[in-house]
Amino acid sequence: MLVLSRHRDESIMIGDDVVITIVDIRGDKVRLGIDAPTEIPVHRREVYEAIQRENQQAAQVDPGDTKQVGQQTNTSSDS
Predict the structure, then answer these.
(1) Contact criterion met (CB below 8 Å) for 69 and 62
(2) pLDDT at position 59, please?
(3) What is the reported pTM?
(4) Nearest Cα to Cα of residue 35 among 27, 23, 46
(5) 30 phi, psi to nearest 5 deg
(6) CB of 42 within 8 A of CB of 36?
């Protein structure tokens, strides 16, 4: 792990496209501004882990379970 020290309004570059800027420091909290291309997802770690869990659960769905979803979608579009 690379550990860097930065002051408010100073930045860190990740590659050529991602800029992390220290926006504010209050007590033990640091506010970061992240400027990244839209094709690079940026999430807090706990959100990223939740997305990964959801994806793993979705990958384990039995294909037979999706038949009912398709039937519900077809009947609701007839309204």
Answers:
(1) no
(2) 86
(3) 0.68
(4) 23
(5) -120, 130
(6) yes
